[in-house]
Structures are given as structure tokens and as C-alpha cells.
Amino acid sequence: RKEFDKIYEMLDVKLTERGESFYNPYLSSVVKDLQDLKLAVEDDGAQCVFLDGFKNRDGNAQPLIVQKSDGGYMYSTTDLAAIRYRITKDKADRVLYVTDIGQATHFEQVFQVAKRAGFLPADSSVTLEHVPFGLVQGEDGKKFKTRSGDTVKLKDLLSEAVRIAKQDFETRLQDEGRTETPEYIDNVTTIVGLSAVKYADLKNNRVSNYRFSYEKMLALTGNTAPYMLYAYARIQGIYRKGGVDVESKLDSLQIKLEAKEELSLAKIALRLDEILAELERDLKPNLLCEYIFEIATKFNQFYEQCPVLNAETEEQRDSRLALCHLVAMTLELSFSILGIKKLERI
Fold first, then answer.
1. Which of 36, 43, 74, 204 would you label with 134, given CA atoms 20 to 30 Å apart?
2. What's the pLDDT at 271?
3. pTM
């Protein structure tokens, strides 16, 4: 348990746990109510609900067992009890089940029984949604394992990502002739390493398998967390270099778009609401990842072609500072949604 908590802390994940045993007191009433509704019937000593649309090998209706012949309960019973508790006690209106794609049939069956039993309101005000995900594979396209053939532990995977990020960063510092404190180096490389792993997972369509590669996920170019973090840090660097406190000037800043790079960047920045609505509807984080990759790419093009601090006029300078602020706030919000910490300087 304590080891799990360490992983959650590393990932900045906060959970309110409610284990399977929490629902044990409610299992018998679930079976009784299904019996009273004539949904659960005895079959070879077990209590079963025969499903609509599911057939066994003989072509007969397939049963969902809710109580075994020895009196024991099934995962399906616990899931049904949890559904009823979440709706009646937690007052949930949207319940998401995030598991591997292999559980899809199980949840389809459980949801069907819950609906037929009236556990869900008749007005469709509550939805139950399975949110499946695919498998993580090694670079060879096979099951991701250690060299010895063992399953890779998440703790080891995260630690290795941080180690490689630190190695790469220290090499860059040396090449640039920069000197930084050990604390600064540890903070930057921890955020970069952990963010790289998170982002590599989230940027893929969640139902697809993907190949895990430290080299690709830690690259400074392309659709990676380091690329996004550098774009955000570059904006903060503009503020520092110019001694600009953008927050204090927001009321007076006006955006005036002239260069094509400015127009292109502003257009993509204004799509955030649309992207978040799609993300909420489809529950696919890769939509947001694709969006911030596009906005980071557009920003870097803008940065190369449109001087900010050395703009031709003060009006143009202020306009470009305001545009930088819009991009920074968009990236910051997106990072927060994806569970990625920002870096002011890299």
C-alpha cells in the first residue's frame, strides 16, 4: 500500500479510494432485488441474469452470474452494487470505468443488467461509460518487458525516465557552459522525465496499442512533453529578458494581428474551448495533446519570424506580448489537465 502511495505521489495523483470490500454489505440486497424483479433466476444452483444480445456457443442466451452455487458473489455483483451506490448515495450523473479494452464485454453486460433493473434513472440523466485503453508495447512491438523477461514495474520505468532526462540535461548544460544548482537540475529533470512518460501515454489514441521509447518521448522536438515545456519556458524567458510583468499590463494590452504567423497562432489559440468540449465528450486526451503540439509549433514559428521585445513599435511589442500571454495561459491550462507541471526556466 505504501509503495503504491509513493507512485501516486511521484505522479501527483490524488485518489479517494473505495475498495471492493466497501460494497460487500450491499451484495445480498442486489441479488434479492434482481430476484424480486424476476431478472435473476436459478441455473445449476447459481443466480443468473440472462442477457439480451449475448449468446453462448449453443446459441442460447448467455448468463451473467451474480451469485455462485456456493453462495459466493461475483465481480459483476460488486459492480452492480457500486453502480447503485454511486447513483443513490454519491449522486453521480456520469460514471467512468477506465480499464483495459479486454474488459469491454464485461461492462457492456453489467450496464445492461443495471438498466434493466432500474438502477439507472428512466430519464437517462445518468450515464455509465467504459473508457478502455490499449497495451504498452516495447520498441519491437511485443509485450513491454525487462531484458530478463519480467514485467516492467511502473516505479522503475519512471525512475529510468528521470535518470535519462537528467543525463541529457547535464550534457546540454555542459555544452552550453551553464552552471546550475543540484536542486534546480533535480527539479527540472524530475518534471521533464515524469511529464515525458505521462505525455507519451496520453498523446496516443487510448484504445490503440503503442510502442514505448525513452528516446522518442524525451526528444526536444516533435510531439513530446519536453517540446511543450520548452515552448512555455521560452515565453517566460521573453518576460524575464524584457523585464516585463505581463499580468500588470493585461488591461492595457491589445492584440493587433498583422503578420501571417500572428494570425495563424491566434486562430489555433482560440480553439481551446472547442478542443476541451471534444475532450469531455470523447474522453480522449490525445485530442488535447495534438492541440498543444500544434499551438507550440505555431508559437515557435511566430517566435522565429516575429520579434517581440525588438518589435518595430511599442504597439506591436505590446500586441505580441499579449499574444505570448494567451499562448502561455493556454499551455498552462492544458498542462494542468494532462497532469504536467510547468517549468518557468529550462
1. 74
2. 97
3. 0.90
- Tracing cell 441479488 back to the chain, one arrives at 31
In DSSP terms, which residues pair with 63 in a beta bridge?
Answer: 50
Buried b or exposed e, range 85-96, using 16+ CB within 10 angstroms? bbbeeeeeeebe
Contact 335, 246 (CB under 8 A): no
Terminal-residue alpha carbon distance, the chain: 35
Q: Please, which residues have CB within 8 angstroms of residue 329's CB and are 6 or more apart in sequence?
A: none
Measure the CA–CA gap between 99 and 101, rounded to whole angstroms: 6
All three cell numbers of 323? 499574444
Position 248 scores a pLDDT of 83
How confident is the chain (346 residues) per 10-residue block, as mean pLDDT? 86 89 97 97 96 92 96 97 97 96 95 97 94 87 69 88 96 95 97 96 92 92 96 97 87 89 96 97 97 98 97 94 96 97 96
Q: What share of the chain is helix, strand, coil (3-state, %, to 5)?
A: 55, 10, 30
Q: Please name the residue that has the C-alpha cell 502561455.
A: 328
- Give the distance, in angstroms, between the CA of residue 179 and the centroid of all CA atoms in the same chain: 35
**Residue burial 49-69, b: 16+ Cβ < 10 Å; e: rest:** bebeeeeeeeeeebbbbbbee
| Beta carbons of 152 and 146 less than 8 angstroms apart | yes
DSSP assignment string, 171-227: HHHHHHT----HHHHHHHHHHHHHHHHHHHHHTS-TTS-EE--HHHHT-SSSSSHHH
